[in-house]
Known about the structure:
Layout: E1 38-47, E2 50-59, E3 64-71, H1 77-94, E4 105-109, H2 114-120, H3 132-138, E5 145-148
Parallel strand pairs: 1-4, 4-5
Antiparallel strand pairs: 1-2, 2-3
Helix pairs in contact: 1-2
Region (Disordered): 1-22
Amino acid sequence: xxxxxSFGGASPDHDHGxxxxxxxxxxxxxxxxxxxxxxxxxxRDAAADGERIVAEAISGDGVTYARAEVPAAGxxxxxxxxxxxxxxxxxxxxxxxxxxEAITAVVLDLGGSGSDVARELGMxxxxxxxxxxxxxxxxxxxxxxxxxxx
Length: 150
């Protein structure tokens, strides 16, 4: 079997049926981080079609591994908690393999609503950590520390 390849736009010695030669393959390269920190950051974001909750898995050096956006269906704590829980579970589901288990902290950056949302998610706002019930819903390990942002 004789296989011939052309690289860098070189002219092949056979016909490709009119298709150009030397087209690079569409490789997807996963982001690479040198940090051992992986935080799940949940924040509010204004969009043209309304406010959203954005959940992102971000390494300590700023590499984003997963992102999920969920419409915020209200401004009260129960609605924000539902949207935050949905966003977190979607972002964690987007992580592949061991990355889903590598989250070292969750940051609820929801302005003045952070404590109320933490309470709605079943956490003690004084010492917020992921509970076993929340672990089953979002996939982040029970006992993972939660920071409430400003």
